[in-house]
Design brief:
9 helices; 43% helix; Rossmann fold; alpha/beta; globular
């Protein structure tokens, strides 16, 4: 499914989000705070737009995705960045060593993983002690009235936009369903904490349509005990 939508994936995202995808990507890059010399994993990288944004900081970035079609499109668009590499990978069985990355991030991909808690544990495994996690994912708007408007858009408007601009309308029907059934911010924060991460917190973007979750791998390698917080 993702192979089929790769060619028009980015332009469809721009249309469906009214351009907010660029703002969300910039917020994610700032949250990761990549530094020159760091090694960063961008999991579920898709066409590598987020990976390229991170790589422009000078950090060494690995764009990993389960879809070879997405990776091929990413190489076509961003393969000229020398500090950006591409790896096909299963989020629940990452082909990387323990403690290999200074930071790990995942945008709009965790809800597509069959076992998201396993993916969070794998991200924990490949992160260095003291390293950081940033998850950018669709979420639940906390305001009831706005949430109703958002559901109407997802149910009635988004499928039509996807069919006009995208290459596979059924794929975007799946997108709507995956968002509808995805847990809210506090539940995801609890999953992250259960995977061993500490200092778990989240920040809503665009009224909670998406949320940025931040966390840190304990320097001593012990599991998390701190409460999650929102800001």
């Amino acid at each position: 499914m993702f192979d089929q939508v790769a060619a028009r994936y980015d332009i469809t995202n721009v249309a469906m989000t009214f351009g907010n995808d660029a703002l969300w990507r910039a917020a994610t890059t700032r949250a990761v705070a990549p530094q020159p010399g760091e090694r960063i994993l961008d999991l579920a990288a898709g066409t590598a737009s987020s990976s390229a944004s991170l790589a422009r900081s000078g950090a060494e970035v690995v764009a990993a995705d389960f879809s070879p079609g997405m990776l091929a499109e990413g190489r076509r668009r961003h393969g000229g960045l020398r500090n950006l590499s591409f790896v096909q990978a299963d989020a629940t069985d990452l082909p990387f060593a323990d403690g290999e990355f200074d930071a790990v991030t995942m945008s709009y991909g965790l809800r597509n993983v069959e076992r998201p808690k396993k993916a969070l544990a794998e991200l924990f495994r490949v992160t260095k002690p003291g390293g950081r996690l940033v998850i950018n994912e669709f979420s639940t708007p906390p305001d009831r009235r706005f949430r109703g408007l958002y559901r109407f858009y997802n149910d009635r408007v988004l499928p039509r936009v996807a069919r006009v601009i995208g290459s596979n309308g059924e794929a975007y029907d799946y997108l709507n369903e995956s968002i509808r059934h995805w847990p809210d911010q506090k539940t995801l924060a609890a999953w992250i904490r259960d995977a061993g991460w500490t200092d778990v917190r989240y920040r809503n973007l665009t009224f909670g349509i998406v949320a940025l979750h931040h966390a840190v791998k304990p320097s001593d390698g012990q599991g998390a005990s701190a409460e999650d917080a929102s800001a």
